[in-house]
Design a protein that fits this description.
about 250 residues, Nucleotidyltransferase, domain 5, globular
């Protein structure tokens, strides 16, 4: 039995813990939220439950969260010199600054897909999440032009799609600025890197997509949940859409 638990990477405390009858639904909800949002701590789980109408205090959530072995395991962060970082413009309204980036995912049919992700630095809204087997500068522009809104400025790395003449000419034509992070310093684009981490752990690593169409379906579901359901501590425990609504039109 112990070997089976180890092979499944399943916490022993979760298997052996016998909750009181009246707490079973509470325990199951905490488990569900912890496995759905692998990077959420007990505070975020407590806020989510309270918002959904559960009458429960944070101490009880923490106790069950600990008993279930759901604590987040994090690697110690390396200290970085201040000189290694570059400040990113802090927006005061939605659509002032978007951070965009690429990541890759291989589908079951063996093909490698590229995913364009983007985050509004004011609202934390996932403003773009698109996938294709190849994304050139021209394809990137088509993705962006299909969106209902565009920002005043982008923050990106120095990838060829973002530095090409085709893309920079398009930016100039649309009066959109761009800031490039230092070469080899992805942490300077922290907001979109954080989003990509959640996308990987809560979507891509849990979904086994047969092809590009299935991948796009999973990305659509993740984007909807992220913008409409996921609470953010930096937004005073509002969702990105709720926070954006505070600014009106």
């Amino acid at each position: 039995k112990r070997r089976s638990l180890k092979l499944l990477d399943f916490p022993k405390s979760t298997y052996y813990f016998n909750p009181k009858k009246e707490d079973e639904t509470v325990v199951n909800e905490i488990r569900r939220l912890a496995f759905k949002r692998k990077r959420a701590g007990y505070r975020m789980i407590h806020k989510s439950m309270r918002k959904a109408g559960w009458r429960i205090n944070h101490k009880k959530v923490y106790r069950i969260y600990s008993q279930e072995g759901l604590k987040i395991r994090t690697k110690p962060r390396k200290k970085r010199k201040l000189a290694d970082s570059q400040p990113i413009p802090i927006p005061t309204r939605p659509n002032e600054v978007w951070a965009i980036d690429f990541l890759h995912e291989r589908t079951i049919d063996g093909r490698k897909a590229r995913i364009l992700s983007g985050v509004d630095l004011c609202t934390r809204e996932n403003v773009v999440l698109a996938a294709d087997y190849s994304i050139s500068s021209k394809r990137l522009i088509r993705f962006l032009e299909s969106l209902p809104e565009l920002p005043k400025s982008f923050v990106t790395d120095n990838g060829p799609e973002f530095t090409s003449r085709v893309f920079t000419n398009w930016l100039s034509k649309n009066n959109i600025g761009i800031s490039y992070i230092d070469l080899g310093k992805p942490t300077q684009n922290a907001f979109v890197e954080s989003f990509n981490g959640k996308l990987r752990s809560e979507c891509l690593q849990l979904s086994f997509c047969q092809d590009l169409d299935e991948l796009r379906e999973e990305l659509f579901k993740f984007q909807k949940d992220y913008n409409e359901e996921r609470l953010h501590s930096s937004l005073n425990y509002l969702t990105p859409f709720e926070f954006k609504a505070k600014y009106g039109n």
